[in-house]
Amino acid sequence: AAGTVPRRRSPASDMVRGLPLLLLPLALLVAPARAEGGTAAAEEVQIEVLHLPEACSPKSKKGDLLNAHYDGFLASDGSKFYCSRTQNEGHPKWFVLGVGQVIKGLDIAMMNMCPGEKRKVTIPPSLAYGQQGYAQGKIPPNATLIFEIELYAVNKGPRSVEAFNQIDKDGDKKLSEVEISQYLKEEFARDGKKRHPSAHDEILADIFKKNDHDGDGFISAKEYNVYQHDEL
Fold it and tell me: Is the pTM of this model over 0.70?
């Protein structure tokens, strides 16, 4: 549907849908940002600040969990191809900044933005849908896009140091199956959703399959991919 255009979708399986935000990036592979064509380095996102609140803190950075509304327009004729307010019962969108969950241009455009800020941004094709366009979203090839964005919240993201430490109960700077298993149980109990009894084991196995790159039975800080170059 056209309503999914700005968000990048990963090939999620049914068993991980509805996972708590903190664990979701562990269970799913993040799709690479789409920046097609060879001119990305020469093109930039143009940012116009429409409203800046007096209190501008915290400013968004890579790895933060953002909550925002945005409308998308084709620069060629001004036609609207996306409106987040008409999706998901009008709720603002949640996504992690800078990891490819939205098009590359939006990842760039929403850096150093504060809650309550509004921006109008112009994104070149190389930082959007490139030479191929996105027919499902009614975006033609080589389309320059304009987004009007209103940011509501900036929170610590799922791959933050705080999240890692919350799971790492024994403080050894690596996550064991026991620690992640316990965390899954706590999160499942907290959200109260009904799941098949096998879901826990399947999700746990999937997390280690996708994150335990050296196969040692632990997920290190590097494998967990803590953002922002924070020290653990």
Answer: no
